[in-house]
Amino acid sequence: MATSTPSRAPNRWHVARLVERRVETPTAQTLVLELPDWPGHLPGQHVDVRLTAPDGYQAARSYSIAGPVVDGPGGPRIEVTVQRVHDGEVSPYLIDVFADGDPVEVRGPLGGWFIWRPEETAPVQLVAGGSGIVPLMAMIRSRRATGSKAPFRLIYSVRTPGDVIYADELRRRIRDDFGLDIAYVYTREAPEGWRGEPHRIGLADVNTHGWPPDLQPLTYVCGPTGFVETVADLLVGLGHPSRRVKTERFGPTG
Ligand SMILES: Cc1cc2nc3c(=O)[nH]c(=O)nc-3n(C[C@H](O)[C@H](O)[C@H](O)COP(=O)(O)OP(=O)(O)OC[C@H]3O[C@@H](n4cnc5c(N)ncnc54)[C@H](O)[C@@H]3O)c2cc1C
User: Fold this and answer.
1) pLDDT tens digit string along 187-228?
2) Whose Cα sits closest to atom 31 in ligand 1?
3) What distances in angstroms separate CA 224 from CA 23, 144, 252, one per listed residue?
4) Which residue ranges have their beta carbon within 6 Å of ligand 1?
5) Is 51 exposed, middle or buried (0-12, 13-18, 19+ CB in 10 A)?
6) What predicted TM-score, i.e. pTM, was given to this entire model?
7) Residue 177: how many CB atoms within 10 A of its CB?
8) Maximum CA pair distance of the chain?
9) Is 165 exposed, middle or buried (0-12, 13-18, 19+ CB in 10 A)?
10) Alpha helices in 32-132 (DSSP H)
11) For residues 86 and 75, what is the distance between their CA atoms, to the nearest angstrom?
């Protein structure tokens, strides 16, 4: 895994191929892409994916990289996880039409602010809304892959238990990754035995499951725009300095 900021020509388009696909939820899939000359990346960075239609029309969207680079038979591989946006142009194509072996253009790694460096030792709080889990999962996976001892807390807001992306892996990591705590917030339907009613994330969730400001944690918040703004306001209101609250907005709706 790369642990320094890769800077080699991130704006150059590479041709990648789909080599594997994993169904994460009924609306989200992980796509494993093989990129022969990928320079490496840091957790939190993203790529732009560009599609070109036979008539030359192009559409590009950003997707966070879900984990460390993995070596494969034809070259390095990266993973992205795509959540279907109803009526979207690119995400339904990537989930329903894009097939094994198909080429797609990818550029990156992009983003130099919303990154976690494994040499950091400060406590980390991660707050995800829906597919906002993707870059935060890259941080959780990188923590384990590098043997980091930084204590991590994840608060993950989803509509229902069936919407949890990486559900099995997160269950396993709560057990195996010492120093990682995970709390879920359900907005529409909670699993049996969950304490409380479904609700949108609020002060009590952040206060109970996050780190207190005096521990000077690094915070990463990612998800739909409204979610990110709400959580960032709550954290700053609790006394977290805004420069230590890093945010990434995925889309226009909350
Ligand atoms: C830095 C960055 C990283 C991202 N990482 C990921 C990722 O890891 N996984 C992922 O699934 N998406 C990610 N996104 C969002 C992604 O880039 C696209 O916006 C998303 O896939 C929708 O594209 P689309 O072409 O399907 O929809 P569009 O055709 O662009 O939009 C269709 C309709 O849906 C609305 N819309 C667009 N995006 C969203 C959204 N995210 N949520 C709700 N409504 C939306 C639009 O306003 C429009 O009304 C990321 C975005 C950014 C900026």
Assistant:
1) 999 999 888 899 999 999 999 999 999 999 999 999 999 999
2) 88
3) 21, 27, 6
4) 46, 61-64, 80-83, 85, 87-91, 131, 134, 224, 248, 250-253
5) middle
6) 0.94
7) 16
8) 57
9) buried
10) 91-96
11) 33
